[in-house]
UniProtKB/TrEMBL annotation:
This is Saccharopine dehydrogenase. PANTHER family: CARBOXYNORSPERMIDINE SYNTHASE. Pfam families: Sacchrp_dh_C (PF16653), Sacchrp_dh_NADP (PF03435). Residues 160-407 form the Saccharopine dehydrogenase-like C-terminal domain. It comes from the Bacteria. InterPro entries: NAD(P)-bd_dom_sf (IPR036291), Sacchrp_dh-like_C (IPR032095), Sacchrp_dh_NADP-bd (IPR005097). Residues 4-156 form the Saccharopine dehydrogenase NADP binding domain.
Amino acid sequence: MSKVLVIGCGGVASVAIRKCCQVSEVFSELCIASRTKSKCDELAADLEGKTETKITTAQVDADDVDQVIALIKEYQPDLVMNIALPYQDLTIMDACLACGVNYMDTANYEPEDTEDPEWREIYNKRCEEKGFSAYFDYSWQWAYREKFEKAGLTALLGCGFDPGVTQAYCAHAKKNEFDTIDTIDILDCNGGDHGYAFATNFNPEVNLREVSAPGSYWEDGHWVEIPAMSIKREYDFDCVGQKDMYLLHHEEIESLAENIPEVKRIRFFMTFGQSYLTHMNCLENVGMLSTTPIEFEGQQIVPIKFLKALLPDPASLGPRTHGKTNIGCIFTGKKDGKEKTYYIYNVCDHQECYKEVASQAISYTTGVPAMCGALMLLTGKWTKTGVHTVEEFDPDPFLAALDQYGLPRSESYDPVIVE
Ligand code: NDP
C-alpha cells in the first residue's frame, strides 16, 4: 500500500501510470501532476472504473521548486516519479530532499538553455576533463549523493530501458554470467514503421539533441569521441531483421564505466532509417535543432521547440506504428577461466503495446521499467540510500518484474559480435 506522485503526463508517464494501475496492491494511490492538468484529468478519466488505484490529479510547474515542495507537502507521497523532462531533474530532487521523500527518474539532467553562461562554464570544463561533449552527464545529479545519503533517502536515476534495463542487464551479466566482463555493446533497434516521413518516438527535443550530438564510447579508461553518425554497423536483430545502426553517446556508458571498472570497452548503437537521417541532417543544417532563442516577428522563438510543435506528437504514433523493437546488451568476458559471449535482450511489439496501454513500444519500453523500478523501491527490494543508477542494485528482482509485467528477456550464448 503506497502513495506515489508522478510528475509528467506525456508518452512515457502515461504508460508508467497505466502499468502502476495494474498493480494496485502496491500502487494504492497515485497523484498525476503535470504542467498541463487537462492531460492528467483525461488519463484519470480513462482509467476510472478500470483500476483499484485511487487517482487524483494536480497542476505543477516542476521548474519551480516551491511549487513541487507545496505539492509534495500536500499529497505526502512515499515516492516521487519524475517522468517529466530531464530539465526538471534537479528541481524535483531538491523538492524531494526538502520534504524527505524518495526520488526516481528516467533520464539524467540536462539544461533547457544550453547557452546559459553559468552552465556553459561548467560544461566547457567538463568537456575538457572528461572528453565527451554531450549536453547531459551525471555530474549534476551525482553531486547530490551525500545529501541523499545523509537524509536516508534514495534517488534512483535513469530507470527506463536505456538507460535503465540495459544497466540491469549489465548487473545481471556481472552477477550471474561472468567472472570478468571485457566488452559491452548496447544495441537499441526500433524496427517499427509509423508511416510518416519523419517523426520522433519520444520527446522530439530530447531525442533530436541526443542523436545529432557527436558519438562517443568508453575504451581503456577514457572516452573516444567521434563525429555524429560516423560509425555505422549492420546487425541482424532477432524478430526484426537486418538494420543499419550508428554509434551514439549514451548516458549509461558514463555510469557503467564507473560501476564496472574492469570493462575495457562500452559502446552504444541505435538503428536509424535513411529517411530519418536525411531529415535530421537537413533540419540541423538550417538551424531547426537549435535551442538558442531567435527573434521572429517580434517574438522570441526557440527553433527546436517550434519544430516540436510541427512534428507528430509521439503519443499519437501508437495506433499507426507496426513492427518490433529489440533492445539489449552483448557481453564478452570470462567465466571459470574460459572466454564467453552472452546476449540478453527484449523484443517488444508496437501493436501489442498499443492494445494493452494505448501507446507505441518506445514509451512502453520506458514506462514499464519506470513502474518496475518504483515497485523495487516501494516493496523494499531496493533499499540503498544515496543517488544511484540501476546497475548498482540487485538485478534479479527487477528482471523478474520486467519478465512479469511485459518486457521478458531473451538470451543467446552464441551471438554475432559487433565488429
Ligand atoms: P513528453 O514530452 O511526451 O512528456 C513530458 C511531460 O512532462 C509532459 O506531460 C509535459 O507537460 C511534462 N512537463 C514538461 N515540463 C514540465 C514542467 N516544467 N513541469 C511539469 N511538467 C512538465 O516526454 P516523454 O514522455 O517522451 O519522455 C519523458 C521522459 O522520459 C524524458 O525525460 C525522456 O528523456 C525520458 N525517456 C527515457 C528513455 C529511457 O529509455 N530511459 C526513453 C525515452 C524517454 P506538457 O503536457 O505541459 O508538455
